[in-house]
Amino acid sequence: IKKIGVMTSGGDAPGMNAAIRSVVRTCAFHNIECYGIYRGYEGMIEGDFVKMNARSVKGIINKGGTVLKTARSKAFRTKAGRAKAFEKLKSEGIDAYVVIGGDGSFTGAMVFNEEYNFPVIGIPGTIDNDIYGTTHTLGYDTTLNTVVDAIDKIRDTASSHNRLFFIEVMGRDVGHIALNTGVGAGAEEILIPEEDLGLDRLLESLRRSKQSGKSSSIVVVAEGDKIGKNVFELADYVEENMTEYEVRVSVLGHMQRGGSPSCFDRVLASRMGVKAVESLLEGKSNYMVGLKNDVMDLTPLNKAIKGRSKINMELIRVSDIMTV
Ligand code: ATP
């Protein structure tokens, strides 16, 4: 392997830049040429490549987003699109690549590998932490900190007005972000897709909390939760059935994806980049790098995609105890 490509694909996540930096510098360390591929598979198909060296990634470790941009590519889902991508990589002499993205990006990498036997290693970059084979995906820790900070601020206004706030957080169909930030910010209830609390129990719990002398309440709702049709309908239902509080909704939205990566994510990105490049140099392919028991580990891409990252059930109990 003489030339390695690096790209970000799918949704962006804080820490992607730190991972790009690590891939580029690990290549430089091993005297391997490194090419940035812009806009994920879209740029691969168009041959939108740029040669990078150790200095081209200066000053980005602390930046959110991704300097290589990211995209969702319809064309890469077609045989013709992937054939074009292969031609572009071949004509540039790129003979392996690192893809930083989520399960969709890994699926694309596997399909491409089956067709062209093109060496690839994945780095899990998504705030949702919904990938099997790593306890932490890149960006997850930063998002937890961003969300906890936002909830703290909302609590200031909630307690000044005796309000009940429903705060919707990201996480797609898993409850990692909701569960951890709910415990971290002291939410009264946490609604996650993995556990169906039921509307009656929610009301009962909120009444209990009011009776115990609380002046405000925070309910953290995972975007994938199924209890109400959506967080606004859920809030309406609670307001109709509970007159004790004024109810408000806050959907945190895309601010959860932005911002400077936490120290944890920067360190994780640096480790993952090194592991990804060195795995390619050892002749490995079709794996995702991940963190397990604080060591870097490899999981086959097909397992990473199919497996389910499980929430920590202990946290549900901890949350129940904390809201006594
Ligand atoms: P996130 O989880 O943050 O959304 P992701 O990597 O899962 O990130 P997707 O949009 O699902 O994001 O996938 C990224 C890209 O991977 C797609 O736009 C597409 O180009 C490619 N891809 C996904 N699935 C396939 C597939 N079955 N065949 C070929 N390419 C695919």
Automatic annotation (TrEMBL):
Its EC number is 2.7.1.11. It is an enzyme of class 2 (transferase). The lineage of its organism: Bacteria, Pseudomonadati, Bacteroidota, Flavobacteriia, Flavobacteriales. Homotetramer. ATP binds at residues 11, 72-73, 102-105. It holds the Pfam family PFK. The keyword Flavoprotein does not apply. Catalyzes the phosphorylation of D-fructose 6-phosphate to fructose 1,6-bisphosphate by ATP, the first committing step of glycolysis. Its cofactor is Mg(2+). This is ATP-dependent 6-phosphofructokinase. It catalyses: beta-D-fructose 6-phosphate + ATP = beta-D-fructose 1,6-bisphosphate + ADP + H(+). Residues 3-279 form the Phosphofructokinase domain. Belongs to the phosphofructokinase type A (PFKA) family. ATP-dependent PFK group I subfamily. Prokaryotic clade 'B1' sub-subfamily. The active site is at 128 (proton acceptor). The keyword Magnesium applies. Substrate binds at residues 126-128, 163, 170-172, 223, 248, 254-257. Mg(2+) binds at residue 103. Keywords: Allosteric enzyme, ATP-binding, Cytoplasm, Glycolysis, Kinase, Magnesium, Metal-binding, Nucleotide-binding, Transferase. It comes from Winogradskyella immobilis. Signal peptide: none annotated. Allosterically activated by ADP and other diphosphonucleosides, and allosterically inhibited by phosphoenolpyruvate. GO terms for molecular function: 6-phosphofructokinase activity. It is found in: Cytoplasm. ADP binds at residues 21-25, 155, 186-188, 214-216. Pathway: Carbohydrate degradation; glycolysis; D-glyceraldehyde 3-phosphate and glycerone phosphate from D-glucose: step 3/4.
